[in-house]
UniProtKB/TrEMBL annotation:
Record lineage: Bacteria, Pseudomonadati, Bacteroidota, Chitinophagia, Chitinophagales
UniProt GO cellular component terms: cytoplasm
Biochemical pathway: Purine metabolism; purine nucleoside salvage
Family: Belongs to the PNP/MTAP phosphorylase family.
Keywords in alphabetical order: Glycosyltransferase, Phosphoprotein, Transferase
NCBIfam families hit by this protein: PNPH, PNPH-PUNA-XAPA, PRK08202.1
Its job: The purine nucleoside phosphorylases catalyze the phosphorolytic breakdown of the N-glycosidic bond in the beta-(deoxy)ribonucleoside molecules, with the formation of the corresponding free purine bases and pentose-1-phosphate.
Protein name: Purine nucleoside phosphorylase
Length: 273
């Protein structure tokens, strides 16, 4: 076994001491989107700092614990707080929890994030299902010797986001009068928000929303053969012509306000698993 697989196993063994279920899904909660965790029943919580080899999260709005319990009766593991490259972690650290959730037994990964809108049809508070992404982050989580037991050297990325889950989410949204966009997420390093020219550039190359997370976790999930469903809450609009200052507080506020819609879609999808 390699050092990485040893570490994944050690983290998994530690978590299994506190919770013996096999989760069907993992959930990564984005900035200001932690309320979904309240829907998890009979839960056990474990601080990241107690789990062997887990990094510790440093951003406001990310509390930093694993929540294990039942959502609509289905065993799930949720991350309240995720790791970002801009915090100084390596991509291997950023994606370590995805590998641990896979080790625990998940087959599907749900991801939420706050993102800046670049599509002229988007408004603050809208939801966008990620149907594809463009990776503009500077380090690749799979760089280095490939661990063949975790996945292939050259993973296919033609459908990293499950078409079946996207279709199911569309049906759930329609049945509940929730309007949804689907679009392309551009993953960037941060921690600056984008300049006006950068937002424009990212729109020109095919992006509908931009954010500082998600892409590394999706890549490692694809490597591991997990199905993925990911959704952005549009918390600011980067392409406005008028005065347009974007703050972290406004991002958290918009994410919080849109959270109930996102929770409904995630929990219904999990119920249907
Ligand atoms: N850019 C990058 N990341 C973000 C944004 C944005 O405009 N909004 C929320 N996260």
């Amino acid at each position: 076994m390699s050092e990485l697989t040893d570490q994944i196993k050690a983290a998994g063994d530690y978590i299994r001491k506190y919770w013996q279920e096999i989760p069907v899904a993992g959930i990564i909660l984005g900035s200001g989107l932690g309320n979904l965790a309240k829907e998890i029943e009979n839960s056990v919580e474990i601080s990241y700092r107690d789990i062997p080899h887990f990094p510790e999260s440093t951003v406001e709005g990310h509390s930093g614990k694993l929540i294990l319990g039942y959502m609509k009766g289905k065993p799930v593991v949720a991350m309240a707080g995720r790791f970002h490259y801009y915090e100084g972690f390596s991509m291997r650290q950023v994606t370590f929890p995805v590998r641990v959730m896979k080790e625990l037994g998940i087959a599907t990964l749900f991801i939420s994030n706050a993102a800046g809108g670049m599509n002229a049809a988007f408004k603050v508070g809208d939801l966008m299902i990620i149907r594809d992404h463009i990776n503009l982050q500077p380090e690749h989580p799979l760089r280095g010797r490939n661990e063949d037991t975790l996945g292939p050297r050259f993973p296919d990325m033609s459908e990293p986001y499950s078409k079946a889950l996207i279709a199911a989410a569309g049906n759930i949204a329609a049945a509940n009068n929730i309007s949804l966009h689907t679009g392309v997420y551009v993953g960037v390093q941060g921690p600056t928000f984008e300049t006006r020219a950068e937002y424009k550039y990212m729109h020109i190359i095919g992006g509908d929303a931009v954010g500082m997370s998600t892409v590394p976790e999706v890549i490692v999930a694809a490597h591991a053969g997990l199905k993925v469903f990911a959704m952005s809450v549009i918390t600011d609009i980067g392409i406005r012509e008028e005065e347009n200052v974007i703050t972290h507080e406004e991002v958290l506020e918009a994410a919080n306000a849109a959270e109930p819609k996102l929770t409904l879609i995630f929990s219904e999808l999990i119920r249907q698993l």
